[in-house]
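Researcher: Structure for this, please.
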Amino acid sequence: MASDGVILFDKPAGVTSHDVVASVRRNLGRGVKVGHAGTLDPFATGLLLVLVGRATRVQRWLMALPKVYLADARFGFTSSTGDPEGEIVSTGVVPEGDLSLTVGVIRQRPPAYSAVKVGGRRAYALARAGVEVSLAEREVSVYRFVELWRSESGDRREFEIECSSGTYVRVLIADLGDAYCEQLRRTRIGAFDVADADPDRVLPVRDALSFLPEVRLAPEDARRAGHGVAVAGAVGDETTVRLVDGDGLIALAEPAGGGLLKPVVGFR
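Model: Predicted structure, token format:
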């Protein structure tokens, strides 16, 4: 197995994202860096991007990609965590007919039971310890929110949601009324699809970053970029690009003004 790249992993329910990373690290052996690009809750299933070796350097670009989820909502109940692992309370309030499903840019407060860090500790750890946690609102985008199916009684509905990084689907479901997210599956991250998941295949870093514009360099500029020196070839005011030559990926670079691209993550 290659030692640098991205593994598309279909995480099962009942294990944490950290558990998946640990299992990959054991398989690859000591000394190989392993991380991931976006946590999935233990109850959730679906696509997890596991980063191996130098791919851990590009975590922030992969984490910023939009996500697609399938969410099964149970109405007539609330959950202290927004999922099946919390304290479930029956309210009996079940909506009728079509629901108003929010799309666009919204402000959302992360749930107390989340992986957001507060003073160096995870919010969920503080909440479980009985510490009251109030997290600041953040701006997120919901690109698509559609109902796929509902039960005859209307107490269960399935939704497909496409949203920006940092969006809490549990909160979107709870905002629909007395409801919690009974099942959650992540099906896509950017152009990566869970149908292509294979724990034994490592996608090369260059291929995993194909969503970023490519700038091909001549030999002298390739040598300079490999040493972290800015080179000519700006393509946009805020666009991160891949610098490549005939031997492959050299670096990721960002505009530095004056028509220059400054390497920010090197691979040579």
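Researcher: Any notable elements?
Model: The longest strand covers residues 138-150. Helices lie at 17-28, 59-63, 123-128, 169-174, 205-208, 219-226.
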